[in-house]
Amino acid sequence: MSETPVKQQSTAAFYGQAVASFAVAIVATAIGIFNLEADAWVRAFLGIAVLYLVTSAFTLAKIIRDRQEAGQIVSRVDQARVEQLLAAHDPFQKL
């Protein structure tokens, strides 16, 4: 049979860097919108647009991850079926 692949996990440093990068980007964007020389409704519109962009990016990332995980499950089931057929096959068996 085949070996079970090791589940890949992010390191704590990578996770921390990703969270910090996200926080810096959101804060910098918020400061930029707040300091923008425009009417309040324009700044509010830009703020809502940024929030919509962030939520849609999270949704897209989740959908991509779910599709990849589903593909891995189907691949493992297919691989198990092939291994079962190969284990049951005896090329020296006389018919």
Structure explained in plain terms:
- The protein has 95 residues and is mostly helical.
- It is built from two helices and no strands.
- The longest helix is centred in the C-terminal third of the chain and has 49 residues, at 40-88.
- The radius of gyration is 25 Å and the shape is elongated.
- The two termini are 26 Å apart.
Q: Which class best fits the helix and strand makeup? A: mainly alpha
Q: C-alpha Rg, in Å?
A: 25 Å
What characterizes the major β-sheet?
none
Beta strand %: under 5%
Low-confidence stretches: none
The coarse overall form would be elongated
| Quaternary status | single chain
Distance between the termini: 26 Å
Give the overall average pLDDT.
85
Helix residue percentage: over 70%
What is the string of helix and strand elements? HH
Number of helices, counting only DSSP H or I runs of 4 residues or more: 2
Number of E strands:
0
Organism: Streptomyces daghestanicus
Keywords: Membrane, Transmembrane, Transmembrane helix
Protein name: YiaAB two helix domain-containing protein
InterPro entries: YiaA-like, YiaAB
